[in-house]
Each structure stands twice: as C-alpha cells, then as structure tokens.
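Both lines are retained for reference:
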Amino acid sequence: MRLPKHIQHWDDERKCGNGIIVTLNWRYSFYAGEHLGVAGFDTPLEAIQKTRLKEVYPCMCDHCLAGGK
C-alpha cells in the first residue's frame, strides 16, 4: 500500500491481538496543540478516516519545527 506523505508507517497488528498502529511523519499530529504522532485504531475503515490529511494537524512543537532533528 502506498502511503500519503503525512503517514510514515502503517502497521496492521490485528493478527496478534492489537489494532492498526499508524505513525505520522514529523510535522503532523493527531491532536491540535500537542505532539501526538502515533495512534491505534480498531478497523481499517476507522484508520483510513482518522488519518486523512484533513483530519490531522500541523505540529508546531520544537522538535517538528526543527525538522525532526
């Protein structure tokens, strides 16, 4: 699966009892105003819906503003 530019990694761990773990690239966050770049989801549909570019936020933390360094 080709991932959008704002998603770094998509890991389907449902076979081992977990969910779908999605890691955003630096400079993106799942929440406005704080750095949260990893989230878990129960279904592929939920993961797709919640990781659309319009559903994530630009991250303004020092680490992200420094280019992830």
